[in-house]
Amino acid sequence: MFENGIPKGASVLVAGGTGSGKTLMCLQMLADACKRGEKCLYMSFEESEERLRQHMEDFGWDAEEFERKKLLLIKRFSLFDIARSIDALLEKAKGELLIDVEPVILPGGFKPDWVVVDSLTAISSAFSKKGDTYRSYIEQLFRYFEKLGVNSFLISETKEIPTVFSPTGVEEFLADGVIVMYNIRKGNVRESAMEVLKMRGTKHKKNIVAMQIVTGTGIEIYPEQEVFTEIDK
Question: Over the stretch 22-39, which tens digit does the pLDDT of each residue have?
Fold first, then answer.
């Protein structure tokens, strides 16, 4: 889908409806990165560490081996910790806190090359009555990953055929790229597809193309096979 791959240090929104393969695609990319000797962090705000490890094992990616080699860290974060980070960031902005704070606290001694955040939808739910606070936090989060120089993938739950690709619509403008995944019912079957809505810094195909989840292998993309030409977003 990309002429030269995803640019190093890019932040990418991975958007799609339930069952479209967002988590699987991110786990697959981390597995490939681990095989190249790159360090990866999977930040979960919903699924447990054990369940995510099992997802990887089901597709033949040895999560425990990657963890033993200190290439992979799967960690479940608490939304209460995020809420405390928000309060600290607000105090810092008002000059009431003199120490530097970050939107997330990464595990000590682990400096990742890749980070997955699963998901922005879960984070936004913790600030359902504080929209401005959430937007401020997300902006800080994007800046933080940019400062770290990591490739970051931020998962966002959307409608089956989305017109907005993130909880507030702001995230898709902050991100360098947006990858949209589909799992659309056509008659009595569902058809999977994906598209690269945008990606700064590299040329890419702009078609909605066929995708398949293959047992024991993972996601396969067919960039020459267009689908959903009749869908009007």
Answer: 999 999 999 999 999 999
Give rounded-to-5 percent helix, strand, coil for the chain.
30, 30, 40
Helices assigned H by DSSP within 74-219: 79-93, 120-125, 131-148, 171-174
Q: Which amino acid is at 23?
A: T
User: Which residues fall within 8 angstroms of residue 22, CB to CB, at 6 or more apart?
Assistant: 14, 15, 16, 119, 155, 157, 181
pLDDT above 70: residue 94 = no
Each residue of 56-73: b (16+ CB within 10 Å) or e?
beebebbbeebeeeebbb
DSSP assigned state of 23: H
Its pTM surpasses 0.85: yes
Tell me which CATH code domain 11-180 carries. 3.40.50.300
Rounded to the nearest 5 degrees, what angle is found at the Cα of 165, between the Cα atoms of 3 and 209?
A: 40
What gap in Å lies between CA 162 and CA 22, rounded to an integer? 14
What are the backbone dihedrals phi and psi of residue 185, each rounded to the nearest 5 degrees, phi first?
-80, 125
What would the two tokens of residue 22 be? Answer: 């967002």
pLDDT 10s digits, 188-229: 888 899 999 999 999 999 999 999 999 889 999 999 998 865
- The single-letter code of the amino acid at 107 is P
